[in-house]
Design a protein that fits this description.
The chain has 12 helices and 12 strands. With about 400 residues, it is α+β, with helices and mostly antiparallel strands. The chain folds into 2 domains: about 210 residues, no CATH class; about 100 residues, no CATH class.
Length: about 400
């Protein structure tokens, strides 16, 4: 069994109770729990420009949506970026993929306008549905680089035909597009790119193009009652003359919040392997990087005025073969906005779960306050990420 050493001065880990030894655990599911603290920020807004919220346990909490979290992890530009993994195909989410990646190259190559128009009509509807020839009818769709390259190649092949043949071929290709795309996907390990392999994809115009999500992300919420205020701000005109009206040139209001957020992520190893074409080494590297991203990447709203950057103050990673379960119940009764109190609530709840269900997950934890968790070794973030990667790659922890 791989074992990461305790950090000097971190205290002792809490081992399993007598009669409850779990020397080796299958890593079917990976669970990542985290606590992040932020002050004077507006991390994720609703349609009214206010912080997203959720009522839980009779108390209103500040919330960060899973969509917000996933986007920032997948586009993060860091040494642990998912795009830096060797062999990981990129992906693009847009309603303009055909316009910019398929049709525009044909126009630039000098193909006849009527041929380009026929190809565009066929490929827009094939990709975005029957009404996809109108931009307003298209939904932003996630396509992997292999799929985009295939579409561009097919469009070029058709455009090179004599004009009359090209128009007929374009129409025929559109009618057979599902079969064509299916054949392409079956010959490619990452047709939808790494993003789709992790977070899934739904294509309403082609059910067979759907990809199950291997990474499940909960909405993060504050472990305590919401803390917010309305921020009154002004803008002064630098070129205002003395004879002009005194005062600010613009007055506005925005909401700012503070909070300690509990986050929860689950990775289904088998689904991840299926989506990665069975590449266990890549699956391990994905999860190693994901731990770093969860710990260090913050939602990026209002960067210039709030600098919303924060690292996790606590993390717990569990590897096991039983159905995952969130630890959110530890905060149904709001606790104080204190990392130490939140850690204590998590530890108590986890211990009760162990006593009741004895599901035997293997665990590693990281804590700035050196707090320990039941049956978890206390390690640094790099050790935590490395252990996670090994558990997923080998299928055992």
């Amino acid at each position: 069994m791989d074992s990461a050493p305790l950090l000097s001065g971190h205290g002792k880990s809490q081992g399993p109770k007598k009669g409850r030894t779990h020397p080796m655990t299958n890593s079917r599911f990976l669970q990542i729990h985290s606590l992040h603290g932020y002050s004077a920020v507006l991390l994720n807004r609703d349609d009214a420009g206010l912080a997203k919220r959720i009522e839980y346990g009779g108390a209103m909490r500040t919330r960060i949506s899973s969509q917000c979290l996933k986007r920032h992890w997948r586009v993060a530009d860091s040494v642990h970026a998912l795009t830096g993994i060797d062999g990981a195909a990129t992906a693009t989410r847009s309603r303009e993929i055909v316009t910019l990646n398929v049709v525009k190259p044909l126009t630039e190559a000098g193909f006849a306008a009527d041929v380009v128009k026929a190809v565009e009509q066929a490929f827009q509807t094939a990709v975005y549905g029957d009404k996809g020839d109108q931009r307003g009818n298209r939904q932003p769709l996630l396509l992997g680089s292999p799929e985009i390259e295939f579409l561009a190649g097919e469009a070029t092949r058709i455009a090179k035909m004599p004009p009359d043949e090209a128009k007929v071929a374009a129409s025929a290709w559109a009618k057979a597009s599902k079969a064509n795309m299916k054949a392409m996907r079956e010959q490619c390990s990452l047709p939808g790119g790494l993003v789709a392999a992790l977070f899934g994809r739904m294509v309403t115009s082609d059910v067979e193009a759907n990809i199950d999500a291997a990474v499940h992300v909960a909405h993060a919420f504050t472990v305590h009652r919401e803390e917010s205020e309305s921020d009154y701000f002004t803008v002064v005109d630098d070129l205002r003359r003395i004879e002009d009206d005194p005062g600010a040139d613009h007055i506005g209001e925005t909401e700012l919040t503070c909070g300690l957020f509990y986050g929860y992520v689950v990775v289904d190893r088998q689904v991840l392997l299926n989506n990665l074409g069975g590449d266990a080494a890549m699956a391990g590297e994905v999860c190693r990087r994901l731990v770093h991203l969860v710990a260090t990447v913050s939602p990026g709203a209002k960067l210039g005025s709030t600098a919303p950057y924060g690292y996790a103050s606590w993390m717990l990673v569990e590897a096991g073969d039983r159905q995952p379960r969130s630890l959110a119940e530890a905060f149904r009764r709001p606790c104080a906005s204190s990392t130490e109190e939140a850690e204590a609530a998590l530890s108590q709840h986890l211990e009760r779960l162990d006593e009741t269900y004895d599901t035997g997950e293997m665990r590693r934890t990281m804590s700035l306050s050196r707090a320990t968790m039941p049956r978890a070794e206390l390690v640094s973030l790099p050790e935590l990420a490395a252990w996670t990667g090994r558990a997923i790659e080998r299928g055992q922890a």
